[in-house]
Design a protein that fits this description.
heterodimer, A: mainly alpha, B: mainly alpha, Rna Polymerase Sigma Factor, Chain: A, 10 helices
Chain lengths: ~140, ~200
């Protein structure tokens, strides 16, 4: 150090002579080992299992682009799923809905083309139920 | 006959990560005296230093897998040591305030200290104990941040850049804290200055 020490610094430097007894650090290490080993034995089972699982996984060499590829694939699948739920209904959905409409409605069935063009769907019922007609007419 | 080369810290760290506890023992052996000095000069109490030192090395052992080697092990263990010591001091101050009665008196019997302060002036010899007491009192009056830079720079002889890394601050801040701390200590120890 090229800087000259001030008297106050010389005085403070004397504190470096405050050292523990010589055998202190050997005893310290023994105490440390005792605590370290005790702590290792007291670890919960889940922690040991987690560490072993991590070690096992570390054995696999994952290619550099694997995580990016998985992320892109996950985003793509999510996008497709969102589109299929909120977009134009597919042909099979239309067929199913037209069939159910013709079964439920007793009036004039609505064609699939009309269902696509007119929304929301509406069903026209007979003004007078069939059961009201006279059973026999002579 | 040449002495066998000691393994580097990086090798010992890697061995520890692989589960070799004896490699970490060697790191403890290497750095416990330095970290002891750091903690002791912050707390001025041997018993507290001993407990804290155990906790510091246990914490380092537990978190060694997260040590990526961006800094040296020396810097890393000092950073853990300093953070834990400052947290401990904050809690202690809240609990009971800093006790100046805890200060060790062993220095009076240290031959290096006696030699360094030896003089024919009987008055000064009589003041040895008082000097040590005042010195520790003055250190305890500094804020934690100021005491930390004085401990690392003046007592442990670390360079400014290393201290800045450990405290996570700039070299300029370290220098300004040192300047301010020296001025404060000068005021506290005025009667011993230049004696």
């Amino acid at each position: 150090m090229s800087e000259e020490l001030s008297p106050i610094q010389k005085l403070i430097r004397l504190k470096r002579y405050e050292q523990p007894p010589e055998d202190y650090f050997e005893d310290f290490l023994l105490e440390f080992q005792r605590r370290q080993r005790a702590e290792m034995l007291q670890r919960p089972v889940w922690q040991i299992a987690w560490e072993r699982a991590n070690l096992w996984l570390e054995g696999f060499r994952v290619p550099a682009f694997a995580y990016a590829t998985i992320l892109v694939a996950a985003l793509g699948i999510t996008g497709v799923m969102i589109n299929s739920q909120s977009g134009v209904p597919s042909a099979s959905n239309l067929a199913a809905s037209s069939k159910s409409a013709s079964v439920v409605s007793s009036g004039t069935p609505v064609s699939p083309a009309a269902m696509v063009s007119t929304a929301p769907h509406s069903y026209v019922l007979e003004k007078r139920p069939v059961s009201y007609d006279a059973p026999f007419s002579f | 006959m040449d002495e066998p080369l000691e393994p580097k810290d990086t090798v010992l760290v890697e061995l520890t990560k692989e589960g070799d506890a004896s490699a970490f023992d060697e790191l403890v052996r290497r750095y416990s005296p330095r970290v002891y000095g750091l903690v002791y000069n912050m707390t001025s109490n041997h018993e507290e230093t001993n407990d804290l030192l155990q906790d510091i090395f246990l914490k380092a052992y537990r978190s060694i897998k997260g040590f990526r080697g961006d800094s040296s092990f020396y810097t890393w263990i000092h950073t853990i040591g300093m953070n834990m010591t400052i947290n401990f001091l904050k809690k202690r101050n809240r609990r009971r305030g800093p006790s100046l009665d805890d200060i060790d008196a062993r220095i009076e019997n240290d031959p290096n200290f006696i030699e360094a302060t030896a003089t024919t002036d009987p008055r000064r010899e009589a003041n040895l104990s008082e000097l040590q007491k005042r010195l520790n009192e003055a250190m305890q009056k500094l804020s934690h941040d100021h005491r930390a830079v004085v401990t690392m720079f003046d007592i442990q002889g670390m360079p400014h850049a290393e201290i800045a890394k450990i405290l996570g601050t700039s070299e300029g801040t370290v220098r300004s804290r040192l300047f301010y701390a020296h001025r404060q200590l000068q005021n506290y120890l005025e009667e011993f200055r230049g004696a």
